[in-house]
Each structure stands twice: as structure tokens, then as C-alpha cells.
Amino acid sequence: MRSNFILGIILIIASVLLYTQVGDLPRRSAMFPKMVLWGIGITGLLMLIDAAIKAKKLAVAGDEAIAQAGEERSKMRDTLLFQILVPGTVMLLTFLILMVVGFYVASAFLVFVIYCYHDYRVDPASLKRKVYVKGGIFAVLVTLFMYLVFTLLLGLPAPSGVFF
């Protein structure tokens, strides 16, 4: 409830700030980003409305609704940790690796971490050496495929880091 309110405000503010930055683009180029930002702003507004409705229901509800609100808070903590903080940290690490080492090493790291993290979320007890080996092989194969397609076949330059 409170999280929807906060996230709704953040989405509205972010969409307004980013919308002002899109104004410098040519009219046709700015059309898609503007529509996306409108969608983000409307989503933020709907989240505010949802939070207000839930707050009103909770104010007139009994003990069962209060217990359900506590359960929702617990779910929100899990969501914050497993769907926002961990992936955000992984993306930040990938960005830092990209800046230092280069695109293909960062891509392999990201694929490996996502593979292992997904396996952990499905069954935390299943993380064994076999999962890491399969994740490493999968990451190398995906990175090799990207190299073959983007660099060799299409001739696109990959973002480079300090070392590569």
C-alpha cells in the first residue's frame, strides 16, 4: 500500500523529468519515447489511485485486513530484495565490468549470474558445482554466439572497456 504510493510518485516524477529531456529530439524520433513516458506516468497515477483505495479499505476493515496488510509487507520485502536489489546490484556490477573489461566479458558475466540466480530462485538447495559448470558453459556459448553474429557477421563494433 505505502510502497505503491511511493513508487507511483517516483514514476510520475521520473516520467515528467524524462519527458522534458525528450523535447530536444526531432518530432518523429521523440514520438515513441513520449508515448512510453506517458504510459509510465499513467501507471504511476494508477498506482497512486490503487494505494488510496487500499488505504480507505484498510481504514474501515477489521483485524483480518490488518493481518493481510502485514502479509503484503512481508511479500514486499521479498520483492524488494529478490526483484529489485539483487538484480540492480548485478546490473551495476555488469556495467562496471563493461567499463573496465569490455562488452563480451560483461555479457558472459551477466549470463552466468542470471543463470545461477534463476536456479537459486527456483530451488536454493540445488546450487551445486554442476549448476556453476552448466552456467559457465551456457555463458560462453551465448557470448560466442553474440560475437559471431554481431562482430563477425554484421560487423558491428562492440562497446570497449579500459582493457579491451
Helix % is over 70%
Q: Quick check: average pLDDT?
A: 87
Q: How is the biggest beta sheet arranged?
A: none
Any idea what the radius of gyration is? 22 Å
Task: Give the DSSP E fraction (strand runs of 2 or more residues).
Answer: under 5%
Number of domains: 2
N→C terminal distance: 47 Å
Number of DSSP-assigned strands? 0
Low-confidence stretches: none
What form results from the Cα inertia axes? Answer: flat
The helix/strand class is: mainly alpha
**What is the tally of helical segments?**
5
Order of helices and strands: HHHHH
Summarize the structure in words.
By secondary structure, the chain is mostly helical. The chain has 2 domains: 1-60; 73-164, no CATH class. 84% of the residues lie in helices and 0% in strands. The protein has helices at residues 2-22, 27-60, 63-100, 103-122, 129-153. The longest helix is centred in the middle third of the chain and has 38 residues, at 63-100. It is flat and about 65 Å long. The N and C termini lie far apart (47 Å).
